[in-house]
Amino acid sequence: MHQDGLPPLRRRLAFATIAMTLFVAVLDGTVANVALPPITRDLGVSPVEAIWVVNGYQLAVTVLLLPLARLGEILGYRRVYLAGLGVFTLASLACALSPSLDVLIAARVIQGMGAAGIMSVNIALIRFIFPAARLGRAVGRVAIVVGVSSAAGPSLAGAILSVTSWQALFLINVPVGVLALLAGSRTLPDTPRSTRPFHLTSALLSAATFGMVISGVNGIGHSEGLPASLGLLVGGLAIGVVFVRMQLRMDEPILPVDLLRRPIFALSAATSVCSFGAQGIAFVSLPFLLHDELGRSAAETGLLLTPWPIATAIAAAISGRLADRFDPARLSALGLVLFSAGLVALVFLPAGAGDLDLVWRLALAGFGFGLFQTPNNKILITSAPRERSGGASGIQSTARLVGQSLGVALVAVILGLVAAEPLRAALALAAVLAAAGVVPSLLRRYEARPAAPMDEAARAEEMASGG
């Protein structure tokens, strides 16, 4: 019988390792956008060339998530996580020392490979770090880290660039990575391993499918070479058909079709794609709405968008505890209702709206998203057998990236097709996507046993550890 979580002190140190590492991995997906102007100036390249500093990282993360999640099931999640962290740390140093754009792009691709090792198994590790009775609040803490790092990226990057060079954005990862490696090597748990071998052909087909589809979607989203982008999308989907048919014949596939056959898992993954798609649409549309339609400055726009991630972090903390006590399927459905309501309120934002009118709408949308995300992720990970936690973790991260890319592409399509108030039309579509997840969320039946009441010792330990 497996151990139900780690001892309290080791548990806190292990989660601190996860939090530090995940923070910098997610952060590096956003800070490079802010660093592109000084990079183009210092290296003497064009913006079109420099965009691969961002795209190379994102593609590497996306194409390797599922293969590395499967590798974690075979080698152990701890090994894949620490190897990914080591690669990420060394590649961060290489990014800071890059003398040319080609070297920087190569280092960013390797950095993305390391980040994929981190993101592919982090939720799977959480399942072995925390007791089952506290898994909801643990997943909530992960959501807080992801939300805060995503939101803090542009502001932190701007602050660093105001006092030093762009190389510092990558250099700060090195001490954090070294500290996390030292802590993780001592605290992260060993996990059961699958005896089935790694299937290289499946890994290559997975990489080709997601790489081509995401490249095509991103190309459409940035209005770059529409025929080539559509060709990538169609080619990726064609390879995907071959990939899926191969996975259907395997007992432990890289693409977890065995888990997707479970209605509760498939519905959770689908609603995750919809919610992140809605969030992606909103995050692209809102800066333009505030700056262009409402006349806010760039600084005011950044400040006014802050209530969203703050509300998301607060809701994630609250819903993490609630998901351990109440039906997480209904809780996530309530979050989607609030998320959609906030987006609808933004659609009908008056032309001369004041800051307070905007803040409560953004806070409502962000709170709803945070309330949805944590219980949904708990269902996603616990509806899979413990030995398939890697596949569930990989799907969770893949759903986030696919949803965000889909959201960017949909905004570009709407801007090209809708003549009257396209930004509000985009927000309306985001509200529809969020609302579309309510029905499947309510249809889910959460099958895990409710947590047993904590005894006095456990309750005292929770209070001493802050929950």
From TrEMBL:
Alphabetically sorted, this entry's keywords are: Membrane, Transmembrane, Transmembrane helix, Transport
Q: Which domain of life is it from?
A: Bacteria
Q: Does the keyword Oxidoreductase apply?
A: no
Query: Do you know which InterPro entries this protein is assigned to?
Result: MFS, MFS_dom, MFS_trans_sf
Question: Major facilitator superfamily (MFS) profile domain: from which residue to which, for each copy?
Answer: 14-449
Membrane-crossing residues? Answer: 12-30, 50-68, 80-99, 105-130, 142-162, 168-188, 200-220, 226-244, 264-290, 302-319, 331-352, 358-380, 401-419, 425-443
Q: How does it sit in the membrane?
A: Multi-pass membrane protein
Recorded GO terms, molecular function? transmembrane transporter activity
Q: Which GO terms describe its cellular component?
A: membrane
Which Pfam families does the protein's record reference? MFS_1
Q: What are the coiled-coil residue ranges? A: none
Q: What is this protein called?
A: MFS transporter
**Native species of this protein?**
Aureimonas flava
Q: What is the lineage of its organism?
A: Bacteria, Pseudomonadati, Pseudomonadota, Alphaproteobacteria, Hyphomicrobiales
